[in-house]
């Protein structure tokens, strides 16, 4: 069952990104700004998770610096048309997570060859 909001722990498990890294990225990337619940805990939406997976790919897999990842995000935002914005994140988060895991697996496999 799909949820509307995910805790930082759930988000960490789904994306494979440690909570301290999520908090760090939040301080660097204005695009990543999870809301907070009444208790002051971060709650992530599917758009946030999609952005985290994009950042993970850029920073951890493609080895971009954080400044380089910021530039890529800015460039992507400039290039997107209004129609693209409606489709952004249209894939279910579970599918996006599975694809991300497959991408990481294949990248690791390629390094071993």
Automatic annotation (TrEMBL):
The keyword DNA-binding belongs to this UniProt entry's keyword annotation: yes
Lineage, broadest ranks: Bacteria, Pseudomonadati, Balneolota, Balneolia, Balneolales
Stretches assigned to the HTH merR-type domain: 5-75
InterPro entries: DNA-bd_dom_put_sf (IPR009061), MerR-type_HTH_dom (IPR000551), MerR_fam (IPR047057)
Organism: Natronogracilivirga saccharolytica
Pfam families tied to this protein: MerR_1 (PF13411)
PANTHER family assigned: BLL5018 PROTEIN, REDOX-CYCLING DRUG-SENSING TRANSCRIPTIONAL ACTIVATOR SOXR
Segments of this protein annotated with the region Disordered: 67-89
Protein name as annotated: MerR family transcriptional regulator
Key words, A-Z: DNA-binding
Residue ranges with Basic and acidic residues bias: 72-83
PROSITE patterns named in the record: HTH_MERR_2 (PS50937)
Molecular function in Gene Ontology: DNA binding; DNA-binding transcription factor activity
